[in-house]
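User: For a benchmark we're assembling, each entry needs the component sequences followed by a predicted structure for the full assembly. Here are entry 17's components. Please fill in the structure.
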Amino acid sequence: MPPKPGERIDRSTSVEFSFDGKKITAHEGDTVGSALYAAGQRTFSRSFKYHRRRGLMCCAGQCPNCLVAVDGAPGIRACTEPVREGARVEHMNARPSLGVDAMAITDAAGPFTPPGFYYKTFIRPRRLWPAYEWVLRHAAGLGRLPREQAERTWRTEYRRRHADVLVVGGGDAGLNAAIAAAELGADVVLADEGAELGGRLLWEGGHDHARKLADRARAAGVEILTSAPALAHFDGLVPVWQGDTLHQIRARHHVYATGAIEQPLVFPGNDLPGVMLSGGARRLLGRYGVRPGNRAVIVTASDRGIRTAIALREAGIEVPAVADLRAEPSRACSRLLSQGVAVLNGWTVVAARGRREVRAAVLAPVAAGESHGQDREVECDLVLVSGGDSPASALITQAGGRTEYDSARGYFRIAEVPPNVTVTGQVAGEGSFQTAQISGEHAGLQAAHALGLGDNRSRGRAQELRSRLAAADRGAEAVPPAEVPHAAGKAFACLCEDVTAKDIHRGIREGYDSIELCKRFTTVTMGPCQGRMCQLPSVRLMAQDTGQSLEQVGTTTARPPWSTVPIGALAGRPFEPAKRSSIHGRHRELGATVRWAGDWRRPYDYGDPEGEALAVHRSAGLIDVSTLGKLLVRGPEAGEFLDRLYPNRHSNLKPGRVRYGVLTSDAGRIMDDGTVTRVDEMSFYVTTTSSGAGAVEQWFSWWLADWGMDVHLADVTQAVSAVNLAGPRSREILTRLTDLDCSPEAFSYLDARHARVAGVPCLLLRIGFVGELGYEIHFPAAYGEDLWDAILEAGAGEDIRPFGLEPQRVLRLQKQHIIVGQDTDSESTPFGAAMPWAVKLDKEQAFIGKWALAHAAEHPATTALVGFTLDNGHVPTEGAVVLDTLGHAAGQVTSARSSRQLERVIGMAWVPAELAQAGAPITILDEGSRRSASVVTEPFHDPSGKLLRS
Amino acid sequence: MSLDFTVPVASSEERTARSPMERLARAAGASFERRDGWNVAAGYGGDASVEAARITDTVGFCDRSALTKLDIQARAEVLADLVARVAGGLELEPGRASRSPDGSTWWCPITPTRLLVLSEPRSGWDVHTALDGAASAAGEQLVTIADVSCGLAALTLAGPGAGELLSRFCAIDVRPGVTPVAAFRPGSVARTPGYVLREGADRLLILVGWALGAYLWEVVADAAGHLGGGPVGTDALAAAGGGLSATAAGVAEGSADA
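Assistant: Structure for entry 17:
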């Protein structure tokens, strides 16, 4: 087409891309769709179910007809995707080619594949399900995603944006709203799904006006997001997807200027390439200079189609007939009539004819939804339909708005909106250019006023605009018939899911007689268009079939997302908060295998777990235990506070001493365990398990708030790092680094000492989870690597080795030290877990769980936690079943390892209480095999604790 | 002091306090200097103008984990009295930090009975000492001063794109009208609990758990790179002004790069 003012393309440029390997030349500003259409391409895709040819229809990113893959990314709408030099565009859902699609045979099999056939067909015989699944998986879906993560190079991220006003829709009304609100001082964001602001102004002659409005909005400080569809409205949060970014916009006020969606008509052949919406043709013509066809028949329910006919004729396109569903000609028709165009009032289209593309339209008079049989076939290569407009109300109803059927206009109009939402423009029924502008400005002022902005002048202006809106003429539309019944062929109500009018009827006959049930049965409105093209037609079909009014049928719930969006955009950046100790980098350098342990990354081993465990027995080992929970409990009532929380006593602990404590719930069940150190009269230092740190801190805080005691609590888990230096040579190593007297007499088991170790201020605890002489050294996290290095250097002559979690687990198992959560569960009490000594029922202080523990003490548990050993070398699975003497399941293995030090398999298990005796035989059922084991009730290693206390 | 095992003050010159972001900063090209006992990323490469340009034109991020951070707990009136004694009559308002008159310290109320104090390491010890003295003067009233310098990693975003950068991983509204200079906001930062302090018009200080410091660096570096920003050293940050008065971060004590 010759150049026209306002077109989007730059004819002085040229861009090359390929479509199915064929080179296509386009201009800057073209979309893939416009360029392909200009190159003569008419079939863009194959339909979802029947693999029918589909061509451009809306040219606005609304329908599913032009879905293609671009550079490997599937599901891209060609009609809105800008051309890029070198882009690789490929068709989807057709094999071997778009022109010859083997699966098109399903079109002929249509009578045998009604909705729901797959629910009923692919269930018997059950043994064939794998084959069915293979077939269905290969037949379903549109396009293919790259299989490997490495191939997915697309970067996505979130951007949070707070604003005073969010305007969705950048047409005449939206722009005027944004400008009005911003000029009154509001912080405004405007999001529009188009590449350029202006909406229909751009192709209906208002492009200069649109550009001026956009410039004015920018000057007023409006943040403008283009090619950015709003996806949903979640309690004030509106996600807006723009390329690689998902804007999460929270605004105090929302203005929806989402416009209206031109509706297709339901008639046989309504999906043939060449059947388009009138707006689609105008976009091709006005924006991209592409001739949509040579001979166009237009079928319309409003003046929109009439204006299209005029525009086509001006472009030199023949218009042999215009069928206007309205019984009387509108004023706009007079221009066409004066040009000699046949305008058939009270007529509609009853069929489109053609094989690969449309070649004729069959027109017929219509009255009250019934054809009178006076068909007229008109040859054409383009059928432009305009079945009226449907307000794009989905986001508004998600925000809490309500719609009701407007019988005069034939659509569901917005009847009510929540207080912080304003609707304007076509979506509010203000569709003319004049009223869109007025209503937009009014909405902007209203939004600003709701936020407390503006003055008397702006309020006066709002009043004036209200008066002008009330007096405006809004034109008329006709309500199209639901379906023209007598013609043969498939009449599609839903192009996305290939749901025909017959399918809707069938669904109703099968009992799915509400629109929501019908949606679920037929999948109408569930495809990529999200009901834009099919909601209203399907509601009309249902009303016609059930005899209900459209108001009674209602609409389906508008669910997010309103626009199709890649899952990757919703996922955003892969944030995975990983806690790393201050020594983490050094572990990596030492070759540690790092694994997740709760929300921490921890060294599992350094390549030789058995050797690491042996080093702890024979010389010394060093493990990073910074992940332990660490709490400071301070105050004059701190001792009493701990006495209330723990079942044993802590208030009588002397400064410089450490005590083990098991924390129980109100029900007396083990929650966590750790140590309590009294660092001075007022201060206790509490350690917890690594995974329980957060829960214990919350537990303490909760009770502290409840009891209101004069105690302060500070979580220093991350502030303080800790290492455990353990093994027979650990004392010598430590002595080299500190002035502290480390002799057994001066620093004995369960003592705590303040000292500088390698110049670093430390708290040293003489405790030993791993069962050898050991020191737990706590210090400021910033010295992690330095202190670690210093200890390893001091121990180099003693064959010290770093050891990881796995050797630690073997070592503690040798001592039968429990791991809460692994060896215990939510039913375990200290009595069952062989720790009755941890409960002081004679304590004068009431404590959490006392009542339950007293009860447990009087009623021994039926199972008990014990050690066991196997001689046959088999390491049972953790979780393997322990059988009672009758062969019934009566317990389970909680931990099991092969100990190189002990040269046997050891473990812990819950067994029937009567078997909890040293030497008692138990049977373990593990992966189908029965294994004999013996109960061991005292630690496997150093049962007297002599080494620990040495 | 019984809790001195939480305070990062080593008696040996051989021991250097290190940020959890140190390795990542080094990988990004940082040159380090030992300052006030900490290994500090003073700059990145030889051309200081690149870092300066980030702060003036796009956005830079700077590891400030070496800040002294004190967690103070006391009854509200005791806390107010304590601050009055040490910082001279600053008002504690929820959601708003106060800078001490000499500009060396931020006083950030977390709750009416809890306060986070931030200062450069050089002045941090003086603040700590002064607070200890004031706490002693509180008599029978319980005052707990916990040094959480190594409990919270800190990162400053500086430059006109600071708010935009923050928006990529944090939902806190930092528009100037909502979060003016000195506003202090607890919230989720990169899906982990944290605080955001607006130190200046284009300067946001983020605090998260120490063990998450490296993670925070990775998140920020990724987003900043996408926005044309990058890391900046403490020297460039100090030169830009607007931070705590001791932001020059003390006098170099020698290189700790090795």
